Amino acid sequence: MSMIAIPGRFTTLPDEYALQATVTALEEHGFSVEVVDDLDAARQAVLARIPDGSSVMTNTSVTLDQTGIAEAINMYPGQSPGCGKLMGPDSAFGAPTGR
Question: Is the Cα dihedral 40, 54, 98, 74 positive or negative?
């Protein structure tokens, strides 16, 4: 399999047609989509979608880290980071379990 490098493919913003086609495809597959203008708006949109009291797993997402969304989730008073609960002991067996 060969790959053709397309300069700027992942470093430039998509045009309106590509953006709308992506939104449509995601919505047709059951995703809700909100297009925002900047990173601050993206962080706010993400936090607004998370119910208070939720436990949120951000894993090691480069996207979430570089956009500041992981930090915003971890610092948001309405949520708790999920990584401690994911690797916490299972109450019956004392072994780590994913929840």
Answer: positive
Cα distances from 53 to residues 29, 56, 57, 69, 90, in angstroms, run 28, 9, 13, 17, 21
Q: What span, in angstroms and rounded, lies between the C-alpha atoms of 65 and 74? A: 11
User: 92: which 2 tokens?
Assistant: 């019956």
Our count of domains for the chain comes to 1
Structural domain contains residue 62: yes
What pLDDT digit, counting tens, does each position of 19-68 carry? Answer: 999 999 999 999 999 999 998 999 999 989 988 888 888 777 888 888 88
Residue 79 covered by a domain: yes
